[in-house]
């Protein structure tokens, strides 16, 4: 194993000729069956769109820029929309050991598994709510440094806009994973994702990346909240 890049707790590794990213947990215990290599939890790009984005950015030579755009520190606060059972949220939890991950998920079935993860990690706050009604979780939320969204809904940009407006700090980052086929199954996915990016408001789009070969018809948008003057 060889370390290729290591910034803000995200490590790019060469493992037997394969490029992977890993995070360093306080305790090296697998969460979703991922490999642990020399203390790193290997972030599976097939299971997590964020891992796919990070690997692709390394291969494109833009990893440093991407991680800097995320602007994460160990004490950052992350709002995670569509946490499911916590696969990707667990890696964010590794990245902000002194911070918090607010994990919003509306499926009670997924939440059951997420709660098991939260019991083992004191920096993930589970929120059983609909991300399209962000005002419902205002009593427990605070301004956050990063909004990460991965929900397969028709109105993905609208959900992002509402959460950004309520909770993202000025200058904070939005990472929006767009699943084009959830918006329109019949239209050309490239037309669909571009229209969805156009619908984003209150943010400046920094980059848009196609997540193939890991995730077909998915795009990752990285944006920054326009700071209020
Ligand atoms: C693709 S999965 C997320 C996978 C997860 N982000 C990961 O990488 O570990 C999408 C999740 O979003 C949840 N979801 C969809 N719409 C939602 C909404 N409006 N509010 C909250 N959760 C939602 C689904 O129940 C599902 O668990």
UniProtKB/TrEMBL annotation:
Cited Gene3D superfamilies: Vaccinia Virus protein VP39
Binding-site positions, S-adenosyl-L-methionine: 87-88, 105-106, 130-131, 150-153
Keyword Methyltransferase found: yes
InterPro entries tied to this protein: Fibrillarin, Fibrillarin_CS, SAM-dependent_MTases_sf
SUPFAM superfamilies recorded: S-adenosyl-L-methionine-dependent methyltransferases
Keywords for the protein's UniProt record, in alphabetical order: Methyltransferase, RNA-binding, rRNA processing, Transferase, tRNA processing
Enzyme Commission code(s) on record: 2.1.1.-
Keyword Transmembrane: no
Subunit structure: Interacts with nop5. Component of box C/D small ribonucleoprotein (sRNP) particles that contain rpl7ae, FlpA and nop5, plus a guide RNA.
Described purpose of this protein according to its UniProt entry: Involved in pre-rRNA and tRNA processing. Utilizes the methyl donor S-adenosyl-L-methionine to catalyze the site-specific 2'-hydroxyl methylation of ribose moieties in rRNA and tRNA. Site specificity is provided by a guide RNA that base pairs with the substrate. Methylation occurs at a characteristic distance from the sequence involved in base pairing with the guide RNA.
Family matches, as HAMAP family: RNA_methyltransf_FlpA (MF_00351)
Membership in a protein family: Belongs to the methyltransferase superfamily. Fibrillarin family.
Record protein name field: Fibrillarin-like rRNA/tRNA 2'-O-methyltransferase
Organism the protein comes from: Candidatus Methanocrinis natronophilus
Taxonomic lineage: Archaea, Methanobacteriati, Methanobacteriota, Stenosarchaea group, Methanomicrobia
